[in-house]
Amino acid sequence: MNKENLRFWILVSTVAISGFSQGMLLPLIAIIFENDGISSSLNGLNATGLYIGILLVSPFMEYPLRKYGYKPIIILGGLLVVVSLLLFPLWKTFWFWFLLRLLIGIGDHALHFATQTWITSFSPLSKRGRNISLYGLFFGLGFAAGPLMAPLVKINEALPFIISSLLCLIAWLFLFTLKNDYPEQTVAVNSLKETFKRFKEASKYAWVAFIPPLGYGFLEASLNGSFPIYGMRIGLNVSSVSLLLTSFAVGAIVFQLPLGILSDKFGRRKILMIILFIGFTLFGAASFLEESVILLAITLFIAGMAVGSTFSLGISYMTDLVPKNLLPTGNLLCGVAFSVGSLIGPYAGGLFIQFFESLSFFTFISLMMLLIFLVITLFGKQKEIIRA
After folding, report:
1. Cβ distance 314 to 216 under 8 Å?
2. Confidence bin at 122 (pLDDT 50/70/90)
3. CA distance readout (Å), 111 to 127, 175, 351
4. 292 in Cβ contact with 240 (< 8 Å)
5. Do residues 359 and 277 lie in contact, with contact meaning Cβ atoms separated by under 8 Å?
6. Is residue 153 within 8 Å of 31, Cβ to Cβ?
7. CB within 8 A of 36, min separation 6: which ones?
8. If you write DSSP's letter for every residue of 111-138 in order, what string do you get?
9. 211 near 337, Cβ under 8 Å?
10. For residues 194 and 288, is the Cβ–Cβ distance under 8 A?
11. How confident is residue 49, by pLDDT bands cut at 50, 70 and 90?
């Protein structure tokens, strides 16, 4: 294996472990807080810490990356994640855990931003799409495996945190074998004022394309952060909740590539409309299948196959709508939209569980899918005409 291939596999392996820790934290802490009697709305509020961290650090990431290079940013981000995970078992209070989740959000975002930029910079044009697909696939696999750690809480509450931090530490140590590199310095780092000016310009062209990433962030975070609370309240055990979350995540991984190919052939908006309507239908059906874990797992697996590509299709849709000079800004805004959705999802899900006890949590998700479907249907065509 040559040095470039080794570098690539170390980076994607690090991303997989990062996905694993993120996928573990949401359901794990939701289950621990639910067992401690903390309300579902406060439980959801705590889950937002990760995404607040991402949003806080986003406008300030580019300058240190250009100044210090990829390796120091990835190492610093990884270290922040490892230390934060190790600190969870030391002091179990609501606000301390909120702070740790915020720090993990900052660390994970630094790690992902630098890793993704590094992979795209050294990948030859003929392999760039493949490499970024593998990057997303490895993160997805890690995220899907994360919820399987939740049942370990029965053995010892600290055990999942310790195992996850050790895995992150192993991946982190491999980063030291890499030789540092720097991004192209031809583009000057602009002021925050200029950055927000480009945000406004990109939004004018493609605001409708930011809705699917926002919706996927909302869906993923509310499923992982709020569904464990709901599941336990309707009598599901921790193992069943973990199985259901993993079913959705695996479904999302399975159909990523085929949906991307279909969107190239038939158009992004059409595929988005179809999968969102399927998502609305399947989550609506899930609300009537809560008595059977097997049927729920199958339904969520198929729902994952349908709506699991909402984020990547949203990015492709944005690419169709904005001028080429605004593509980097559009990509950043898709990430911000995902974080905003992830921020709102767990808290909104917690409020729904608290105040609408007679309704199924899946009804809540189904209605959200319908709302995004309507936005794409009503406003997407108009945007396509403007771009044409």
Report:
1. yes
2. confident
3. 22, 11, 32
4. no
5. no
6. yes
7. none
8. HHHHHHHHHHHHS-HHHHHHHHHHHHHH
9. yes
10. no
11. confident
Q: Do residues 298 and 193 make contact, with C-beta atoms less than 8 angstroms apart? A: no
Tokens for 321, please give them.
């709508």
Token couple for 227: 């569904």
Q: Are 345 and 221 in contact (CB under 8 A)?
A: yes
Structure tokens at 121: 């910079």
Give pLDDT tens digits for 338-374: 889 988 888 888 888 888 888 899 999 999 999 999 9
Q: Are 161 and 88 in contact (CB under 8 A)?
A: yes
Averaged pLDDT, 376-382: 82
48-52: average pLDDT: 83
Tokens 């990431």 correspond to: 61
Token pair for 74 = 């990835």
Residue 339 to residue 55: CA distance in whole angstroms: 7
Residues in Cβ contact with 131 at an 8 Å cutoff, skipping those fewer than 6 apart = 8, 119, 120, 123
Residue 156, φ and ψ in degrees, nearest 5: -160, 130
- One-letter amino acid at 322 equals V
pTM: 0.76
Coil, helix or strand for 144?
helix
Can you tell me the mean pLDDT for 261-268?
Answer: 82
pLDDT on residue 185: 57
- Which residues 6+ apart lie within 8 Å of 357 measured at CB? none
DSSP H stretches of helix in the chain = 3-35, 40-47, 49-57, 62-68, 70-87, 94-122, 125-145, 159-174, 192-206, 211-225, 227-233, 238-254, 256-266, 268-286, 293-307, 310-321, 327-355, 361-387
Residue 10 to residues 6, 24, 115, 135, Cα–Cα distance (Å): 6, 21, 10, 11
Summary mean pLDDT of the chain: 85
The three state secondary structure string of 365-377 is: HHHHHHHHHHHHH
Q: CA–CA separation, 123 vs 133, rounded Å?
A: 12
If you count them, how many residues does the chain have?
A: 388
Highest mean pLDDT among 25-39, 333-347, 367-381: 367-381
Average pLDDT over residues 212-221: 91
